[in-house]
Amino acid sequence: MAKNYSQNASGAAAAQGASGDSEKIRASHLLVKHKDSRRPSSWKEANISRTKEEALSIILAHEARIRSGAATLSELAVSESDCSSARRGGDLGYFGRGEMQKEFEDAAFALKPGELSRVVETSSGLHLIERTG
């Protein structure tokens, strides 16, 4: 039951992404870590002590702001993301299959350019992913 938020739009579409192992996409993300994340620290906070539930509440609020048009993912990522990509508006550049954590990769490859994922959970924390190319 607690995993509903991490299931994204089309696992089938992610599996279909095998149009060639050399396919690369570009994506940006906003990461909210919690105390059980793989590395519970960031450029913003030396020791992240929030619970996964608190992190979920935070990222769902970010998602609501993005979906309502009140902010863009890249605007929020600059100040709110726990990833060092924040200084680039969350831009991760181009990547192919096998370069990211599986849950992240499956979600990113399932998106069409311009689409925003639902919340995706990895060992790094909770992500919103926007496919940009």
TrEMBL record:
Coiled coil: none annotated. It is an enzyme of class 5 (isomerase). InterPro entries: PPIase_dom_sf, PPIase_Pin1, PPIase_PpiC. Residues 1-20 have a biased composition (Low complexity). GO terms for molecular function: chromatin-protein adaptor activity; peptidyl-prolyl cis-trans isomerase activity. Its EC number is 5.2.1.8. Residues 1-47 are annotated as: Disordered. GO terms for biological process: co-transcriptional mRNA 3'-end processing, cleavage and polyadenylation pathway; positive regulation of transcription initiation by RNA polymerase II. Residues 22-133 form the PpiC domain. Keywords: Isomerase, Rotamase. It catalyses: [protein]-peptidylproline (omega=180) = [protein]-peptidylproline (omega=0). It comes from the Eukaryota. GO terms for cellular component: cytosol; nucleus. This is Peptidyl-prolyl cis-trans isomerase. It comes from Sugiyamaella lignohabitans.
